[in-house]
Write a structure and sequence with these properties.
The complex is a heterotrimer of chains A (326), B (559) and C (319). With 326 residues, chain A is of the alpha/beta class. Chain A is 31% helix and 24% strand. The longest helix of chain A is centred in the middle third of the chain and has 18 residues. Chain A is globular. Helix content of chain C is 76%, strand content 0%. Chain C has one domain: MetI-like fold (Orthogonal Bundle). Chain C starts with a helix and ends in a 6-residue tail after the last helix. With 319 residues, chain C is mainly alpha-helical. Classes of the chains: A alpha/beta (326), B alpha+beta (559), C mainly alpha (319). Bound molecules: adenosine-5'-triphosphate (ATP) and magnesium ion.
Chain lengths: 326, 559, 319
């Protein structure tokens, strides 16, 4: 059971057509937001995806949630191909798959009450016949995520809550249908550092209680290391290294992973920290560089890197990396 | 859910209004009631006869109230006074009232009501009776049916002035606290109609007075509906929604109106307005009578009438600014009988005779004392006015005067006439008396009363009369005119009028051009017995057709 | 209910009203010619004397102001030149219900229509449907109101004869009850349709806010929860996009008040608009001033009522 291939992604790709400013006619060019990605999430585990801003994490999450249509590739949930699920099938599937969003400020409808927001999924899926049962369920969920379940709270609007409280509401609403696979897209990145730990702790607690599986997106390697079982590192729409958390931290194979690890702030402040982190730009590729996408920023890059795209290769018991120079 | 409810409610209301409305209104009103509906575009919504002024009021007043006589241009039609006489001095008039007149509340109408009305009108300086307050001295009740009125001077127009003196019930008005603010929304009158319903800005409705002393009206109800524009009023007549339009002001619509065989257009030649060319005679050569007379001669008045007034006009037949009483019947205007060529030649000869003017050369502008005669003429930017002004411009070119047109709005034109600031010539419509704002404005600018300018005109030889200024001279002229009319001596009458007009043109900076008549239109398929045109002459559509006399002749056609 | 906010809005409303009243006092006194001319100029002399006394027109400006405020509070706006002895208040009192009926009916029908079409167009921005609706809205916006009114009158009343040529009800009809209601609605159809051209403005506002709202994150949240297309469209997107629409109704109300002058005049509708038109033609200053004052009061009150609606719809208002 533990090692069951729970959620699988195969050659998943997303190109966004974009037009240049002032371009009205002719073929659009494409942003390679996610390019030929494949991975497997195991039941009950937390699968982390780490990468810089703009590398395609959100796009990936949205494709998993069917909020974005993949350009190509397949997605399997519990062995079933869900890539081409229609609206009805998808609706049923959403009872098992839910998402927690990055932005607790924008992702909650500002004019609706907390009660309505949390209850939205059960209403959409017509779970309860009467409002009283629904209210009890909503209150239960609020308590589960550590919020007050008072009537006053139920009638509040998102604008009257703090960021942490809002994210708890978001979590409550994601869990109310009893979903077991949760896609969390940087759930704490927009929160104050002081409350991030609380939210993460809550999520971990819920994972234990409800036996959840997480697909956890973050741009902080430190956080991924702390909570994930397996970590994938993304760079410019491609996965460059995938491994168990311990393995990847102790023995990073890809120079980009190394860079991310170096960027983790030390627990004890170190005046020399950050000195040797290489400068680089967030790549935005409409025409990706030939060869390894990382080569323009890589210190080890040579002619091979410029011409040939490295494959993800298993170097050590499921520790994959895509680099010519491992 | 709630939202859906709101939507459906709104759409239901919209659909209902489209369906229910026509359904509810489709049924005809009680068919046994005969109703005459008239479309009006101006209606003063008051039935207080003391405050009545202008056409809109008279439409209402003349239905519920009556004057002693309806007089116009010397002819007088009896109303509440069945007969009248004056003594040899012409300073004392006696009016005999009709026998069985009574007020709509059942009280008898007596001489006391007449005395009360005249006294109150004169004392309060109200508009009824016009200028007669200037010379009426005393009003005495002789008996219940006889009133004696003494005047301080002979006034041939006395009866005309009484047109607008609506007799009111003393027993009602005595108790009115403040006549000036009394809306009088439940009037008690003696006329053929009883005021029944008034809806502001919409209509005034009358029911027939079953006890009217003058006879029985064959129509049960009359409704005056207010229309936003002449176009709509005429459209309503054409489509049969109304039975008549008492005043047609949109001449260009008349041919279209006449396409319908059920519609007839009538001309009332008494209620009229005049078109004038105002000449600023403070400037040379405008100040030369000969110059103005040449201009006057060159203008083709018949063209103006034909083209711009669609033939619903006539040559001005009375001298403006002179009391209406001296108006003549159709008098030829100098130059009217002549061919166009002869007229222009005559006008050119008049200018050529003066050495200050350069001689006429075809296609060139004349000079006056070396300066070219470039004249700017200001006109109101209305199609009919522009058409007429164009004709004048062409005529002037034929005598070597270059006229350029300056179009302005009606508002600014009024401002100019009142406040000054116009150059050379101005082309405008003006009346005199109550509506004579243009002439009054002119008088203001010239610092003179145009009436007095005329009376005192030295060249008429009347100004020397020290006693009473020109009034006596005017009186003498009026007496001559009246004499010739009484003796049915058209030749003398025509000469007199022509003399006045020529003198007038010499003295005043005004050249009369044309006289538009009041046009009315009615349907033939709803009522018969509309007044023939001859009967209408001299009586005024507002007082006549919709008032008492001919309304008695109107018979509804059963549908 | 947010009392603090309410009181603030109420205060603001009173302030605007005060400005309107003061302007109404100042304008006739700043005009060339005297205030006497503006108030009494065209009345019979005997009436002039009374008006001058009533408004203290021969006294100092401060005494005039006190009298003016007293008279205005009493509802005495002077006497109409063209319709004396009727007072301005009487004329306006008769006309106001009709104007309110027209304006409110038009608004109540137009706003939901603009809302629905705006939602449809905004939901599929860039589609053929959207383009079609945009072209319709833009052409309505670009067409002068009086022209539309004239075309409606010409086609439906003059040519087809489906609707009456004039007025708010059949003159002297004696209709009562339902029949009267039907008659009034029948007369209101064309004027309301003419005023409904504002639909274009409402639709465009709704569409554009809809487009921006659809980019909001909570829309994606709703989709992720499995909400149906209609639920996302109306419950989440349109519900939020509605707020700017409500604000714009207030702003546009002043426009349709102006439009009613043309529309009422063209349809001979016995409302304030027709009064204003007649007053301008006959230089009836007191009536004109009174009509403008009443229009500013109506506009301010409507904007305030919309504020209340807004308050009810947007829970975020916390000042
Ligand atoms: N709808 C879209 N149309 C065009 N380009 C898009 C669209 N959505 C995303 N992109 C582009 O795809 C790339 C990946 O975006 P994505 O939002 O997945 O990044 P991310 O890793 O989630 O970044 P962040 O850490 O800032 O959230 C970016 O370059 C982005 O500009
Ligand atoms: Mg993201």
């Amino acid at each position: 059971m533990e090692n069951e291939q729970y959620f699988e992604v195969d050659h998943l790709t997303k190109f966004f057509p974009v037009k240049k400013r002032g371009q009205f006619f002719g073929k659009p060019i494409y942003v390679h937001a996610v390019d030929d990605v494949q991975f497997t999430v195991r039941k009950g585990k937390t699968y982390g995806v780490v990468g810089e801003s703009g590398c395609g994490k959100t796009t990936l999450a949205r494709m998993i949630m069917h909020l974005e249509k993949p350009t190509s590739g397949r997605m399997l949930f519990k062995g079933q191909d869900i890539t081409l699920f229609n609206g009805k099938q998808m609706k049923a599937l959403r009872r098992q798959m839910q998402m927690v969003f990055q932005d607790p400020f924008g992702s909650l409808n500002p004019v609706r009450t907390i009660r309505n927001i949390v209850a939205e999924p059960v209403r959409v899926h017509h779970i309860f016949q009467n409002r009283q049962d629904e209210k009890i369920k909503v209150q239960e969920m609020l308590e589960t995520v550590g919020l007050s379940s008072s009537d006053e709270m139920l009638e509040k609007r998102p604008g009257q809550l703090s960021g942490g409280e809002r994210q708890r509401v978001g979590i409550a609403s994601a869990l109310i249908l009893g979903a077991e696979f949760i896609v969390a897209d940087e759930p704490v990145s927009m929160l104050d550092a002081s409350i991030r730990a609380d939210i993460i702790a809550l999520m971990m607690k819920l994972k234990e209680e409800k036996n959840l599986t997480y697909f956890f997106i973050t741009h902080e390697f430190g956080m991924a290391r702390a909570i994930c079982d397996r970590i994938a590192v993304m760079y410019a729409g491609k996965m460059v290294e995938v491994a168990d958390a311990a393995s990847i931290v102790d023995h990073p194979l890809h120079p980009y992973t190394q860079l991310l690890i170096d960027a983790i702030p030390p627990l004890i402040p170190d005046p020399n920290w950050g000195k040797n982190i290489s400068e680089g730009e967030v790549p935005y590729f409409t025409v990706p560089p030939p060869g390894c996408r990382y080569h323009p920023r890589c210190s080890r890059a040579d002619e091979l890197c410029k011409s040939e795209i490295p494959e993800l290769v298993d170097y050590r018991d499921g520790h994959f990396a895509a680099c010519h120079h491992v | 859910m709630k939202k859906r409810l709101v939507f459906s409610f709104c759409s239901i209301v919209l659909v209902l209004s489209m369906i229910l409305g026509p359904l509810a209104c489709g049924e005809p009103v009680d068919t046994t009631t005969y109703r005459l509906t008239a479309a009006v575009t101006d209606l003063h919504e008051s039935s207080n006869p003391f405050l009545a002024s202008g056409r809109g009021d008279i439409r209402i007043m003349s239905r519920i109230y009556e004057p002693l006589v309806v007089g116009s241009g010397g002819a007088a039609i009896p109303r509440l006074a069945e007969s009248w006489s004056y003594d040899d001095s012409t300073m004392s008039w006696t009016f005999n009232l009709v026998q069985d007149a009574e007020w709509s509340d059942g009280e008898p109408l007596t001489a006391a009501d007449v005395k009360y009305t005249l006294d109150t009108q004169y004392a309060g300086d109200y508009s009824g009776g016009g200028d007669s307050k200037e010379f009426v001295d005393t009003v005495t009740v002789v008996d219940d049916n006889t009133v004696k009125i003494t005047v301080t001077e002979y006034a041939s127009a006395f009866l005309d002035f009484l047109n607008s003196m609506y007799i009111v019930p003393k027993h009602i008005w005595e108790d009115v606290a403040d006549i000036d603010t009394e809306a009088n929304l439940a009037p008690v009158g003696s006329g053929p109609w009883l005021w029944d319903e008034y809806v502001p800005q919409s209509h005034v409705a009358f029911k027939k007075n079953p006890n009217y002393w003058g006879g029985t009206v064959n129509i049960d109800e009359m409704v005056l509906e207010i229309y936003g524009s002449q176009e709509l009023a005429l459209l309503a007549l054409k489509t049969g929604q109304v039975d008549m339009v008492p005043t047609v002001e949109l001449y260009s619509y008349i041919p279209q109106l006449l396409e319908s065989t059920d519609v007839k257009v009538g001309v009332d030649r008494a209620a009229n307005f005049y078109n004038f060319l105002f000449v600023d005679h403070r400037e040379e050569p405008n100040n030369l009578p000969a110059f103005r007379q040449a201009v006057s001669m060159a203008i083709n008045r018949q063209d103006i009438i034909d083209f711009a007034l669609f033939t619903y006009g006539s040559i001005p037949r009375m001298v403006p600014l002179v009391p209406e009483a001296i108006a003549s019947e159709d008098v030829d205007w100098p130059g009217l009988g002549m061919t166009d060529e002869a007229r222009i030649d005559e006008a050119n000869a008049m200018l050529d005779a003066d050495s200050d003017f350069s001689d006429f050369v075809e296609g060139e502008t004349r000079t006056y004392k070396g300066d070219p005669l470039n004249i700017e003429m200001t006109i109101v930017n209305r199609p009919a006015d522009v058409q007429q002004a164009e004709i004048i411009r062409e005529n002037m070119a034929e005598i070597g005067i270059n006229v350029s047109l300056k179009l302005i709005g009606f508002g600014p034109m009024m401002g100019m006439m009142f406040g000054g600031g116009w150059d050379d010539w101005t082309w405008s419509t003006a009346g005199h008396g109550a509506g004579g704002s243009t002439l009054d404005g002119l008088a203001q600018e010239f610092g003179a009363d145009p009436y007095n300018v005329w009376y005192d005109a030295p060249s008429l030889g009347w100004g020397e009369d020290g006693d009473g200024g020109g009034t006596t001279a005017a009186r003498a002229l009026q007496a001559d005119l009246r004499q010739s009319r009484r003796e049915d001596d058209p030749a003398t009458l025509a000469t007199l009028i022509e003399q006045i007009q020529v003198d007038f043109a010499a003295e005043l900076p005004i050249i009369p051009l044309s006289q538009g008549n009041t046009i009315y239109a009615y349907r033939l398929d709803t009522f018969t017995g509309w007044a023939p045109q001859e009967e209408m002459d001299g009586q005024g559509s507002s007082g006549h057709l919709l008032g008492t006399i001919n309304i008695l002749a109107l018979e509804p056609i059963a549908q | 209910m947010n009392w603090k906010w309410l009181i603030r809005r109420l205060g603001f409303m009173l302030m605007v009203l005060a400005v309107a009243v003061i302007l109404n006092f100042l304008i006739p006194r700043l005009m060339p010619g005297s205030a006497k001319q503006a108030y009494a100029g065209k009345l019979p002399e005997a009436v002039q004397v009374k008006i001058i006394a009533r408004f203290g027109l021969d006294k100092s400006i401060w005494e005039q102001f006190v009298l003016y405020i007293q008279n205005t509070l009493k509802g005495d706006l002077g006497m109409s030149f063209s319709n004396h002895p009727n007072s301005v208040t009487y004329m306006i009192g008769n006309a106001l219900p009709w104007t309110l009926f027209l304006l409110l009916t038009a608004t109540i029908i137009t706003v939901p229509l603009g809302y629905v079409f705006g939602v449809i167009a905004g939901w599929r921005a860039g589609s053929k449907t959207d383009t079609g609706i945009q072209i319709g809205s833009l052409s309505l916006l670009a067409t002068p109101l009086f022209w539309i009114a004239m075309v409606l009158l010409y086609v439906f009343s003059a040519q087809l004869g489906w609707f009456p040529l004039r007025g708010a009800e059949t003159a002297y009809s004696g209709y009562t009850g339902l029949k009267w209601v039907g008659d009034v609605l029948w007369h209101a159809v064309l004027p309301v349709l003419a005023l409904m051209t504002l639909f274009g403005a409402y639709e465009m506002i709704m569409r554009n806010t809809m487009v921006t709202t659809l980019r909001e994150n909570y829309i994606i949240t709703a989709e992720a929860k499995g909400a149906s297309e209609n639920r996302v469209k109306y419950k989440h997107a349109a519900r939020n996009a509605l707020l700017p629409l409500i604000t714009s109704v207030g702003i546009r109300f002043a426009t349709i008040v102006g439009g009613s002058v043309f529309v009422e005049n063209i349809f001979s509708y016995p409302g304030i608009g027709s009064l204003i038109f007649d007053a301008v033609i006959s230089y009836d200053f007191p009536l004109l001033q009174g009509a403008f004052l009443i229009f500013s009061i109506v506009t301010v009150v409507v904007v305030f009522l919309l504020d209340l609606v807004y308050l009810r719809l947007d829970p975020r208002i916390r000042y």
